[in-house]
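# nightly structure sweep
# worker-07 picked up a monomer target from the shared queue
# config: single-sequence mode, recycle default, output format = structure tokens
# input follows
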Amino acid sequence: GDSQENLFYVDAGNDRVGINTASPVSKLHIDSATNYVDIALRNTTSGSTGTDGADIFLNNNLELGIWNREAGPIRFATSSTERFRLDSSGRLLIGTSSTITGNRL
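# output follows
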């Protein structure tokens, strides 16, 4: 990284940070030389391995991947209100935070 130009670039005049770009177009702009951008959000104070948290990636096919490294669900919200979640068993829950037993339409 020492010889790579614009590995980390701060555009203080426009309040933007660029990683691997000298022309950030948003508050945080990550430009990748590979076919995906990978971001790890980790909580190293929880658990003993330092891997608690989430990994997020976006590849060149615009496929978004989110991994929750803990046993909890992945939650999606708008206006600070949870709208749906993917629980740890892979069930998609819409408009509820718990599963319904039995068959309902």
